Amino acid sequence: MAEPLLAVRDVVKRFGGVEALAGCSLDVAAGSITGLIGPNGAGKTTLFNVVSGLTAPEAGRIALGGARIDGRPGHAIARLGLARTFQIPRPLARMTVLENLLVYAPDQAGERLRGLVSRPKTIARQEASIRARANEILRFMELAPLASDPAGTLSGGQKKLLELARALMGDPRIILLDEPGAGVNPTLMRSLVARIRELHARGVTFLLIEHDMDLVTELCDPVIVLAEGRRLVEGPFAEVRRDPRVLEAYLGVPA
Ligand SMILES: Nc1ncnc2c1ncn2[C@@H]1O[C@H](COP(=O)(O)OP(=O)(O)OP(=O)(O)O)[C@@H](O)[C@H]1O
Ligand SMILES: [Mg+2]
User: Fold this and answer.
1) What is the helix (H) or strand (E) element at residue 218, kind and residue range?
2) String of b and e for 134-154 (b: at least 16 CB within 10 Å)?
């Protein structure tokens, strides 16, 4: 079997007495849209935080394309091609939609080198190409008409699209989406699903947390069920949703 794009092994993350990840192991196959479901508090967002380098695990190993990433800082993991979105979108509210993409550009040589090395032409060229890329992504996400609006004025659903747009700035191989459908109206939801499908067709792998089971049915295969910080079950959603262990995890009682 091919090596997974993302491999999580025996990962532990504690918050005081709470073991949010309790020896969590799972794989995400390259080219998949893998669903991650499970009851509230199962550890789904914590898994994203640990994988994306927002916080370090206490134990375990995580590999992206065969390279160890556990405990590495988020910017280093992003540079290896992993992007993530947040359950609660956090755009820089006073900046415009376009500026929100520009601040997420990888390797902003213009910022880092300014005043140190005098290569203004190179910097200007880089800034122009970053801007062109941001505008292209906004067109792709159908957010171009809002490019000059302060991000804080967007609707909840538009902020979700902006989250995905920001994630695309680093040209990721894998995108972790935390509840992309939450609070998104049906029209924007169509747009979101279409964008995910198109990115997937272009070779982007997804790991997607979602409580909206219609969205999971439509997009995800396989689906991994997380419960109490561990992988409980994995398989096609049609099978997973009938599994008595899954029903018990959701209902809190034997099914
Ligand atoms: N920063 C934190 N400090 C303390 N406890 C935390 C922290 N983050 C998460 N937890 C706890 O870890 C557990 C897992 O939380 P997590 O947010 O990962 O769950 P989730 O599966 O994403 O849930 P939901 O579906 O509600 O978003 C919960 O018990 C939560 O209260
Ligand atoms: Mg969560």
Assistant:
1) helix 213-219
2) beebbeebbbeebbeebbeeb
DSSP-based three-state secondary structure for 45: helix
Q: Which range is most confident: 21-25, 127-131, 189-193?
A: 21-25
**Tens of pLDDT along 216-241?**
999 999 999 999 999 999 999 999 99
- Specify the residue with its C-alpha closest to ligand 1, atom 26: 40
Q: Which residues, including other chains, have CB under 8 Å from residue 120's CB and lie 6 or more apart?
A: none
pTM, full prediction:
0.92
> Minimal CA–CA distance to 162: which of 210, 220, 108, 99?
99
| Res. 242: pLDDT tops 90 | yes
Task: Provide the 3-class DSSP secondary structure of residue 124.
Answer: helix
Q: Which residue has the tokens 């898994």?
A: 47
Please indicate whether residue 20, judged by its CB atom, sits closer than 6 Å to ligand 1.
yes
Q: Which atom of ligand 1 is nearest to the CA of 16?
A: 4
* Centroid of ligand 2 to alpha carbon of 65 (angstroms): 25
CATH 3.40.50.300 for domain 6-91+155-251, yes or no, is: yes
Probe target for ligand 1 pocket from 8, 13, 45, 88, with the most ligand atoms within 8 Å of CB: 45
d(CA 213, CA 67): 33
The Cα 219–Cα 35 span in angstroms is: 8
State residue 126 phi and psi, 5-degree precision.
-60, -45
Residue spans per domain, the chain: 6-91+155-251, 95-153
**Amino acid letter for position 133:** R
